[in-house]
Design goal:
- Helices cover about 45% and strands about 10% of the residues.
- It has about 220 residues and is an alpha/beta fold.
- It has two domains: about 5-15 and about 90-215, Rossmann fold (3-Layer(aba) Sandwich); about 15-85, no CATH class.
- The protein has a six-stranded parallel beta sheet, sandwiched between helices. It has a two-stranded antiparallel sheet with strand order 2-3.
- Helix 3 (about 55-60) packs across helix 4 and helix 5 packs parallel to helix 9 (about 205-215).
- The radius of gyration is 17 Å and the shape is globular.
């Protein structure tokens, strides 16, 4: 049975890929780099091939920044991303979170992004989450998503099989497996293809997340 659902943020709750690519393009031009930043579709194919993109330093490396420029772009990202970009929620996200909360599930977030970059787009929905169940990269509770998931499982007093992690990358699936939780991938995010067979279930939109959770015994 599922008693808690933990979400990755970008690519699952927040539709921010284009904003991230635009930020990369702006930084490349500011640094005088001659880079061809991939389109969203090209970037998704890159991620599907297994290229690491998280935390954000690896995103910059994936699109062609060298180590030095990736590090300074990452620092700029943490300080200025929301000043220059306005990510939005995926359509259906408010209804999905409300439905899960009304069904009596605990809701959490584990993300490699920093708190400032997720709280603004999620501000209207943060009342669905207990503050201690939102774990971001700039907190000191964990070094990896696996550690963060284990921390939340312990905090909730649940068995790992009672917790579902919803993500959009293979590293999310690997983190869930290592933490002993269930995993649900989303095909509207940054990696998974809806026509590709995976070793885990997939949801094509937020409404399908609700259907998947509620068809599992949550009593």
């Amino acid at each position: 049975m599922i008693r808690a659902v933990v979400f990755d943020a970008d690519g699952v709750l927040i539709d921010s890929l284009l904003s991230h690519l635009r930020f990369c393009d702006a930084k490349a031009r500011a640094y005088g780099l001659r880079l061809q930043i991939p389109s969203p579709d090209d970037f998704k194919r890159l991620v599907h091939q297994g290229v690491r993109i998280s935390p954000m330093k690896y995103f910059f490396l994936a699109v062609g920044f060298d180590e030095h420029d990736a590090e300074r772009a990452d620092a700029d990202y943490r300080a200025n991303f929301l000043r220059e970009n306005t990510p939005h929620l995926f359509s259906g996200t408010p209804e999905m979170l409300a439905a899960l909360k009304n069904a009596g599930l605990q809701l959490g977030i584990v993300t490699s992004n920093v708190m400032a970059n997720i709280t603004k787009p999620l501000a209207p929905l943060l009342h669905h989450f207990r503050s201690e169940l939102i774990i971001t990269k700039d907190q000191l509770k964990y070094a990896t998503k696996t550690e963060a998931l284990k921390y939340l499982v312990d905090l909730l007093g649940l068995h790992g099989s009672e917790v579902l992690f919803v993500g959009d990358q293979y590293m999310d699936a690997e983190a869930a497996e290592a933490a002993g939780t269930r995993f649900l991938g989303v095909t509207y995010g940054w990696c998974f293809d809806p026509i590709t067979s995976e070793a885990f279930p997939l949801a094509r939109d937020p409404a399908q997340i609700v259907k998947y959770v509620l068809k599992t015994d949550t009593r």
